[in-house]
Write a structure and sequence with these properties.
Pfam families: ABC_tran. By secondary structure, the protein is α/β, with parallel strands linked by helices. The strands form two sheets. The protein has a six-stranded mixed beta sheet, sandwiched between helices. The longest helix has 18 residues. The protein is globular. The mean pLDDT is about 90. Bound molecules: adenosine-5'-triphosphate (ATP). The site of adenosine-5'-triphosphate has 12 residues, from β1, β2 and α2.
């Protein structure tokens, strides 16, 4: 169970006008502006649920995921995931979660992917038998046989993403955070990734929180969507009941218009 209550997060961003004299002034006097990334965010997500977390650029999606994964500490508010506060009990918490940031890699770049998996086995202290079972399952379902001995940097984006998802699940986490997992993938790879996530959710009741700008991902994977805009949760509801004959893209455009985000 994920319970987020009244989370706030503000970032201080340095600001200065362009030009050499302004750069010189900034050496002695820095001006900061506060950006409210998250403004009183609350929601709960049950075990085994798959939820789409959507909103325009800069809405606060990644900041939320970072707080839920324990990477970022909020200014105020509380978050309990399986009874733990992510940023206070990070080591225990990371055993329960898998994270895929579509734009960043968790694989060691220059070594064969299987070596990254082995390193993760050490990091998470996965017993050998469990590791072998998980590896077999992931290799089969994600079709990694051909690519697992190749260094990550030599893989295509789609191949690498399949390995990233495999790496995020090697320790059998109960919760999976996916931040734009299909970004830049071709249609075939996107469908493979979506089918795999559906399958994992069915087999292991993995809870999935998905942030994406790809509404086909949302349509394929989630029934519930949480809409965030300018750091606030604007809507939390069932996608099907909102569609009423329109496409998901149309629903989202309408929502963005309605909430002026
Ligand atoms: N480390 C940081 N330092 C300063 N400001 C930040 C930082 N991280 C995020 N922000 C600001 O917080 C706000 C929310 O950013 P966030 O990355 O959470 O949005 P997002 O919804 O994930 O956007 P996108 O869809 O573009 O990835 C933005 O205004 C962003 O500039």
């Amino acid at each position: 169970m994920i319970r987020v209550e009244h989370i706030n997060k503000t970032f201080q961003v340095a600001r200065r006008n362009s030009g050499i004299s302004e750069a010189f002034k900034a050496l002695f006097h820095k001006e900061y502006e506060c950006v409210k990334a998250l403004d009183d965010i609350s929601f709960t997500i049950d075990e085994g649920e798959m939820v789409g977390y959507i909103g325009p650029n800069g809405a606060g999606k990644s900041s939320t995921i970072k707080i839920l994964s324990g990477i970022l500490t909020p200014d105020s508010g509380s978050c309990q995931i399986n009874g733990r506060t992510p940023w206070k009990e990070r080591i225990a918490h990371v055993r329960d979660i898998g994270v895929v940031f579509g734009q960043r890699s968790q694989l060691w770049w220059d070594v064969p992917v299987i070596d990254s998996f082995e390193l993760l086995r050490d990091i998470y202290s996965i017993p050998m038998k469990k590791f072998k079972e998980n590896l077999d399952e992931l290799v089969t379902l994600l079709n990694l046989e051909e690519i697992i001995k190749t260094p990550a940097r030599q893989l295509s984006l789609g191949q690498r993403m399949r390995c990233e998802i495999g790496a995020s699940l090697i320790h059998s986490p109960k919760i999976l955070f996916l931040d734009e997992p299909t970004i830049g993938l071709d249609a075939v790879s996107k469908i493979a990734v979506r089918n795999f996530i559906l399958d994992m959710n069915k087999r292991h009741k993995t809870t999935v929180i998905l942030t994406t700008h790809d509404m086909q991902d949302i349509e394929a994977l989630t029934r519930r969507i949480i809409l965030i805009g300018k750091g606030k949760i604007l809507m939390d509801g069932d996608l099907e009941s909102m569609k009423k004959g329109s496409s998901v893209d149309e629903v989202v455009v309408e929502l963005y218009k309605k909430y002026e985000i």
